[in-house]
UniProtKB/TrEMBL annotation:
Domain Glyoxal oxidase N-terminal: 66-445
Span of domain Galactose oxidase-like Early set: 450-545
Protein name (Swiss-Prot/TrEMBL): Copper radical oxidase
Domain of life: Eukaryota
InterPro entries, alphabetized: Gal_Oxase/kelch_b-propeller, Gal_Oxidase_central_sf, Glyoxal_oxidase_N, GO-like_E_set, Ig-like_fold, Ig_E-set
Signal peptide as annotated in the record: 1-27
Keyword tags: Signal
Pfam family, one: GO-like_E_set
Length: 562
């Protein structure tokens, strides 16, 4: 911690760079329903300061494009209106990560299963690579050309993670009768591990079958990956293809990946905690993943889910200490864990009973395999004493179930967007129907006068400094700068969500804030970020920049052309 220089004698004890000690903004939470997504928000990612991308599966959505139904849209976060986007393959249950140059790579999907006019123009998305370079002028669209860009593997329910070299690594997993493909690959492709641009077998994915869809992936500050799926977790060195360590299993037999989905996030990395990673995973289910339990008609939408939240500090001492087990106020499957700029975690969406999916439960509701939607968010304060970290006090209850195929994300103005839900094959009007209504969940800090700043460059390189002109309350006690990756949300999994506090120092007159870029690409991988200046728990608007130089990730032409 650095003490505030002489700014005002009364406030000379103001503290910088200290989320841990921050006072959280007081006031009321609010929940507003406004806008429609046009397509159901199965996948969701903020792509610019004013826009988000929404990907659905091909179904009979109200939004139309070029004479057929749309299954992708760009949402304007300000006007809360949508325009259609035009992928050419089915985005049904794929993943997405941004690259170092700011381009998003969406990967995986499946064939079209509905009947109707979409079929003739939509390809199977199992090997799809879709590239999207965000814009704010309504003029960008998804680039997709199967002839020049496609994956080496077939991937349905994959996850992805942006690496410290600015490329994306895509893990898993098609899991259909007689086909499993427990592999990973890279985009752009690499000539690595004896595989020139083609998939690399993963022993971990093989070991963690069956319920290992959408594995949890996190880049750690030492450059390794944390990987968790089903009841297992490991530390993995992607550069050498070595499993560094198999971590203790998820406690108490809880499965944590789809279709027994938990939510997960890396807790904020800060100078105070020396950028020590700590992972948190909440919810899931103890329902057995034995294949006999997944026969149509066998599972129940009333199957209990888990209220377990677990944390582990991912260093030698933390791993030796094992998982810290806590309990949410309610059990949940498919929760979304959304990091707030103030370092707390908001747990939203999901269901209290059942499993993720549709069309399998013997007592399905409509087609939903889950029931009892979790309608009230939970706020988690990782810095509070054990036993006092969860609260639902003052958090607004929604009337909209957000269960299978729902999503949520933080937005640049620091509110949370809740979207989607459709546990059905096609657009459905019965309970639980296809959901297009959007909700905006605002933490109490949204009520306060927000700090503002100017002077952000387009790119911000490691260990470089920028000086921002800031307009903050002269009574400020606590000023810090946080960069956030809002990630890519689908199925309760949040690819690449990350919060890193930067070292910063306020000028004596309180008008300029000198900020030092992140220490290394393993602490924040090169690529898009949103920069928040926090003053006494109240964040500014998060302006978007690229961390690093904005260069594209390494390109191996040989691997690319395989
Ligand atoms: Cu899905």
């Amino acid at each position: 911690m650095k003490l505030f220089p002489v700014f005002h004698t009364l406030f000379s004890s103001a503290v910088f760079g200290s989320i841990a000690a921050a006072q959280y903004a007081s006031g009321q939470w609010s929940l507003v329903q406004e806008g429609h997504s046009g397509v159901s928000a199965l996948e969701l990612a903020v792509v610019s300061e004013t826009t988000a991308m929404i990907l659905d599966k091909v179904e009979h959505n109200p939004l139309q494009t070029e004479g057929h139904i749309a299954w992708a849209a760009e949402l304007n976060l300000v006007t809360r209106t949508v325009r259609p986007l035009n992928p050419t393959s089915n985005t049904w249950c794929g993943t997405g990560s941004f690259l170092s140059n700011g381009t998003m790579v969406s990967s995986g999907g499946h064939r079209v299963v509905i009947t109707g006019n979409a079929e003739v123009i939509c390809r199977n998305g199992l090997a799809a690579i879709r590239l999207f370079t965000p814009c704010e002028d309504g003029d960008c669209d998804i680039f997709e050309n199967d002839d020049v860009r496609r994956m080496g593997g077939l991937r349905w329910y994959p996850s992805s993670v942006r690496l410290d070299d600015g490329s994306a690594m895509i893990w898993g997993i098609i899991d259909m009768p007689n086909i499993t493909d427990p592999t990973f690959e890279f985009y752009p492709p690499k000539n690595i591990h004896g595989q020139n641009g083609t998939p690399v077998f993963s022993q971990f994915l093989n070991d963690s079958l069956n319920a290992n869809h959408f594995p949890i992936l996190t880049l750690l500050p030492d450059g390794n990956l944390f990987v968790a799926a089903n009841t297992m977790a490991m530390i993995f060195d992607w550069k050498t293809n070595q499993e560094i360590m198999r971590l203790p299993d998820i406690p108490n037999g809880v499965h944590i990946s789809s279709p027994l989905s938990a939510g997960a996030t890396l807790l904020p990395l800060t100078p105070e905690n020396n950028y020590t990673p700590e992972i948190m995973i909440c919810g899931g289910s103890t329902y057995s993943d034995d294949l006999a339990n997944w026969v149509i008609g066998v599972p129940s939408s009333q199957q209990p889910t888990s209220d377990q939240c677990i944390r582990m500090v991912l260093n030698e001492e933390g791993i030796a200490n094992g998982w810290e087990v806590e309990h949410m106020p309610e059990p949940r499957i498919m929760p979304e864990l959304i990091l707030l700029p103030d370092g707390r975690v908001t747990i939203v969406n999901g269901a209290k009973t059942g499993i993720a999916g549709y069309g399998v439960a013997g007592d399905e509701i409509g087609e939903s395999d889950c029931d009892n939607p979790a309608l009230t968010p939970v706020l988690y304060n990782p810095h509070a004493p054990a036993g006092e970290r969860f609260t639902q006090d003052g958090l607004p209850t929604s009337e909209i179930p957000r269960m299978y195929h729902s999503t949520a994300t933080l937005t640049p103005n620091a509110s949370i967007l809740l979207a989607g839900s459709n546990p059905n094959t096609d657009v459905e009007t019965r309970r639980y129907h296809t959901e297009y209504r959007l909700e905006w969940l605002s933490p109490p800090y949204m009520e306060h006068t927000r700090p503002t700043y100017t002077g952000l460059p387009v790119t911000f390189d490691y260990n470089s400094t920028v000086t921002l002109d800031v307009d903050i309350d002269r009574d400020a006690q606590n000023v810090s700068v946080v960069i956030m990756d809002f990630g890519f949300a689908t199925h309760g999994v949040h690819m690449d969500q990350r919060s890193v506090e930067l070292v910063s120092e306020l000028s004596n007159d309180g008008t300029q804030l000198t900020v030092t870029g992140p220490p290394s690409p393993t602490i924040y991988p090169p690529g898009p970020t949103y920069v928040f200046v926090l003053v006494d728990g109240v964040p500014s608007f998060g302006h978007k920049i690229l961390i690093g130089t904005g260069a594209q990730p390494p390109l191996d032409e040989g691997a690319l052309n395989k």
